[in-house]
Amino acid sequence: MPWAPRAITLDLDDTLWPIAPAIDRAEAALETWLREHAPRAALRWPLEARRALRDRVQAEHPELAHDFSAQRQLTLAHMLADADEDPALVPTAFEAYFAARCQVDLYADARAALDRLSARLPLAAISNGNACLVRIGLMAHFDFQLAAREHGCGKPDAGIFLAACARLGLHPHEVLHVGDDPAHDVIGARAAGLRSAWINRDRRAWPDTHPQPELAFADLHELADWLDARLPARTEAAASATHRIRSTA
Asked: What is the side-by-side strand order in the sheet with 195-199?
C-alpha cells in the first residue's frame, strides 16, 4: 500500500500566496500612515531608507531572527526617535503595516485546494513569517498555526517541525510538510524526520547541493490530487483528533 500522511503541515508565504505583493502593500500603507501621523519620519525615512534600516536592525539583533514583528517594531521605534516623533506611536504604526501585510492575494488554486486537503486530514501551518491566518480568513481550514515567533526559532531548525508533530499527536514520519523553499521546507522537514513535498510553481530547477525531494508538485491542486488517490474523506477519528488539538491549543 502506498504511504499516505496522517496530517499535513503547510508553509504560508509563497506557498498559499506570493509574499512580495503583500509586503509592497504593507509598505505603502505604512507610508500613508507616516505622512498623516508622523510627517517628519515620512520625510526622513522613505522606502529605501526604511528597508536599509530594517536590514541593519536584523543584523544587529540576531536574537530576533525568528521574529519579524519585533524587528519591524524596533525599526519603527528608531525611525520615530530619529525624526523626533512620539515613540508611543509605534504600536499604531505597526498595526497600519501589519493589517496591510495580512491582505494577501491567494494563488488561484489555494482556497479550493485547502478545502480538499482539510476534508482529508488535519492541517497545521508552520511559518517563519508573521502572517495571521485569522486576519486573512483561512484559519477555519487549519487545526493550528505555529509561527517561528511563537516557537522561538524558525525553519529549517528541527524544533519547530517536531513541536508541530507533538501538537498533532503524531510521529514525524506520519506527517507530510509542504512548502516552496528547498532548504527551509524540504530539507528542514526531512532532517526532522517528516516526509516533505516541494511546491514548485515557477518550474525552478532543484538546487544541485540538496538531495532530490521525495515529492514535487506544480501547485496545491496536484498535491490534493495525490492525496485523493491515497485517502478517503476525513475519518471520524481524524475529526476527533482535530477537536482535541483545537480544544487544547
From this structure: 144-147, 123-127, 7-10, 175-179, 195-199, 215-217
pLDDT one-digit tens code per residue, 30-48 = 999 999 999 999 999 999 9
DSSP structure string for 118-186: HTTS-EEEEESS---HHHHT-GGG-SEEEEHHHHSS-TTSHHHHHHHHHHHT--GGGEEEEES-IIIII
3-class DSSP assignment, residue 65: coil
Average pLDDT over the chain, rounded to an integer: 92
- Check residue 8 and report its DSSP letter: E
d(CA 83, CA 53): 14
What is the model's pTM? 0.89
Q: What is the pLDDT of residues 158-195, one digit of tens each?
A: 999 999 999 999 999 999 999 999 999 999 999 999 99
Contact (CB, 8 A) for 187 and 214? no
> Rounded mean pLDDT of 119-133?
96
- The pLDDT of residue 114 is above 90: yes
| pLDDT on residue 237 | 44
In degrees and rounded to multiples of 5, residue 68 shows phi and psi of -65, -30
Class (C level, CATH) for 20-101: mainly alpha
H or E stretch including 198?
strand 195-199
Position 24: which residue type? D
Asked if residues 193 and 177 have their Cβ atoms less than 8 Å apart, the reply is: no
Fold adopted by 7-18+105-248 = Rossmann fold (3.40.50)
Q: How far apart are CA 143 and CA 136, in angstroms?
A: 15
Listed by start position, the domains of the chain span 7-18+105-248, 20-101
